Amino acid sequence: MLEKVTGFVIRKLATGAELLLLQHPFAGFQIPAGTVNPGETPRNAILREVAEESGLKNVLIGTDLGVQDIILPPDQAVLIHPTKVFSRPDPSSFDWIQVSPGLWLEVHRKQDGYAQITYKEPDHLPNPSYTTYQITGWVPEDTLSQRQRRHFFLLNFDGQTPPSWKVNTDSHTFTLSWSPLDDLPDLIPPQDEWLSVLQKYLYS
Description:
The protein is mainly beta. The protein has two domains: 2-69 and 148-203, Nucleoside Triphosphate Pyrophosphohydrolase, CATH 3.90.79; 76-145, SH3 Domains (SH3 type barrels). The protein has two helices and 15 strands. The chain has helices spanning 42-54, 191-203, and strands at residues 2-13, 16-24, 28-30, 33-35, 59-71, 76-79, 83-86, 95-99, 104-111, 114-122, 131-140, 144-145, 147-157, 164-169, 172-180. Strands 1, 2, 3, 4, 5, 13, 14 and 15 form an eight-stranded mixed β-sheet that branches. 25% of the residues are buried.
């Protein structure tokens, strides 16, 4: 099972509460999120992810908002361990790239302990027009899982930031900003659905 984390970072102003958002250069507005590393707790993972993606260090976990479990269909899987992608279902075959945990993959067939997979990255989200990058090959079956668990956290920030700022991480430049909770921009799927977790806590 792959464990993921999502953090709703809130700051409270006299004019109301605001949510920290990052704008991906190719994938619209998002909430800080990421993958739990081996040996890492979800709480430590979300603090690390927020620091990496926003540059903010003095963020405190306020509340654990629960978990969401996803079971993928047989023709899909999520990568749970870093692995090389082989040209054949054979570790002695040509390996031309290594991929990292967290990728969602199409699964085409299985043979001799290996699975043939495809990873596709669209040019933009949420309205892609073409596939800009694609990997197809064979990976060991034990690097894949059809189960994912996402941990949600409410975090608090009490400090000053510019109106917007940029952070370079994961080979991308993200633009960070605050948005009023009652006037949020559209988030990319499925992150738009994650907001219901925060809203249920705040307004129930």
